[in-house]
Design goal:
alpha+beta; Immunoglobulin-like; 15 helices; elongated
């Protein structure tokens, strides 16, 4: 079935007939390129090192979903630390909102692993083996060599990725043992490597354009004062071909000079600084023309800035025809740093970071104890109604890496605590819930309540005191 053609561009990587437009962007070596290069390789080293480095005997970053443990630079958070994890997530999201409101898509172009690995590892290898256009090569050997290297890289990156979710001691065992000994783990690694290879060797920029929602959120996260990479149409238009050393903007030209600088022989007004070479579009890794204005596909990689600056120097014009700017600046309005979202986002961020610090400090204790009421009746009468029994559930989280024994005690005289297991033995970084019964004389209850104090200790320096209110009959018992 034929695909209807459209005059409007739907996607930068989509041809008018619906087929995919494959991109082979040129490399522009300029000021921003030489800044991104050391930063990118430093980030690659950081991406690889984080799951391998040990901090306090634990991986720097480990998201162990199987054991429901999350290690961050020596601190282990358990699945019960929902408040800590929630505040961490809120902090990261608000930080991204603030960075986008101020600096646009700086994350996408400078720090995102998709961009860093694609532009600093995979594309340089492709240019080295096949050149800018593979069609110029008559042999298929470069393509075979390229995909073989890509596949080897994908296996390496798959293991780095899995190291964030599987402890390296366990992952290294997968590498040294036969796949038949761990078929499930082997298939997981194989599937991850296949996805990485598909992403960087085949899907490529489509990940940013189709899979990642960040570009589509620009309309919400950006305002007209946010930094973007923009083309100065007031300076560049009307565009047209020019020779090197051509007359400056606004300088009078003869008809002969105009015909030399403009092959069409156009007798219109003096043209702008843009010579319409199209180099800014040929270096774009997502295939857009930055001169069309702000677009969802722009990842802020600055390649168009470097390319345009090199052309401007050759034709004798000032650089930064394409530059970091804002929509208002391009429209001739002044830059205004203080605006509502730049005030609100930091306030939310400060509150989230403060809450995260407080919650993290509480989770730094060697154990955490929570006392809950038992399931069923709130209390029971014993000894012919002379005593009241309350069932409790004592949940203890052992945050240390060693097994600990926790003893539960009651502080008040005349009140007994009966527990099937006391002390409670809990493995390192695990939790357990113990059932206990607190028995108190009925006469000590006032309006159906009695305040007591529970003490939980492990004999190795940890002790937590928990005030608790027992429930009982509303009135005192009378003698028959």
């Amino acid at each position: 079935m034929p695909v209807p053609e459209t005059k409007e561009r739907v996607l930068s990587t989509l041809n008018a007939d619906g087929s995919r437009r494959k991109l082979r962007p040129r490399l522009a070596r300029g000021a921003f390129h030489w800044k991104r290069l050391p930063l990118g390789w430093g980030l690659i080293a950081l991406f690889v090192a984080c799951p391998l480095l040990q901090v306090g005997g634990k991986p720097a970053i480990l998201l162990d979903l199987g054991r429901r443990q999350f290690s961050f630079f020596g601190r282990t958070m358990l699945a019960t630390d929902t408040v800590v994890l929630m505040l961490l997530l809120v902090t990261l999201v608000v930080a991204v909102f603030l960075a986008t409101a101020l600096f646009g898509r700086v994350w996408c172009g400078w720090a995102c692993p998709q961009t860093v690995y694609m532009e600093l590892v995979y594309r340089p290898l492709e240019r080295l083996l096949e050149g800018t256009r593979a069609a110029k090569r008559g042999s298929v050997l470069p393509a075979i060599t390229k995909h073989a290297l890509f596949l080897a890289l994908s296996f390496a990156l798959a293991h780095v990725f899995l190291a964030y979710f599987v402890p390296w001691s366990e992952l290294s065992g997968w590498l040294t043992r036969s796949p038949l000994e761990h078929p499930g783990a082997f298939l997981t690694m194989l599937a991850t490597a296949a996805l990485v290879h598909f992403d960087f060797a085949l899907f490529r920029e489509q990940t940013c354009l189709l899979a990642c929602p960040y570009g589509r959120l620009q309309a919400v996260l950006l305002d007209r004062q946010s930094w973007i990479i923009g083309y100065d149409a007031r300076r560049g238009e009307p565009r047209g071909k020019r020779r090197a050393g051509g007359s400056a903007l606004g300088a009078p030209r003869t008809r002969a000079e105009a015909s030399l600088e403009d092959p069409r022989g156009d007798r219109a007004e003096e043209r702008g600084h843009c010579i319409d070479c199209g180099l800014c579009a040929r270096v774009c890794p997502t295939g857009i023309d930055i001169r069309d204005g702000l677009q969802m596909e722009c990842v802020g990689c600055t390649q168009c800035i470097d390319a345009c600056d090199s052309v401007m120097r050759k034709v004798g014009h000032p650089p930064r025809l394409i530059r970091y700017t804002s929509q208002d600046e391009l429209a001739g309005k002044p830059r205004r740093l203080l605006r509502p979202r730049v005030v609100v986002y930091p306030l939310i961020l400060i509150a989230a970071v403060t809450g995260f610090g407080i919650a993290l400090g509480r989770s730094a204790r060697s154990a955490e104890v929570t006392v809950l009421r038992g399931i069923g009746s709130p209390y029971a009468l014993l000894a012919g109604g002379a005593e009241v029994s309350n069932q409790l559930r004592v949940k203890i989280v052992n945050r240390t890496s060693a097994r600990r024994r926790y003893r539960i005690a009651i502080a008040e005289a005349g009140v007994r605590l009966v527990a099937p297991e006391n002390p409670v033995s809990i493995r390192g970084e695990r939790s357990a819930t113990a059932t206990a019964f607190v028995i108190a004389p009925r006469a000590r209850f006032v309006q159906g309540r009695l305040a007591v104090t529970l003490r939980v200790s492990d004999g190795e320096g940890f002790e937590q005191v928990i005030p608790y209110g027992l429930l009982g009959p509303a009135g005192t018992r009378r003698a028959p």
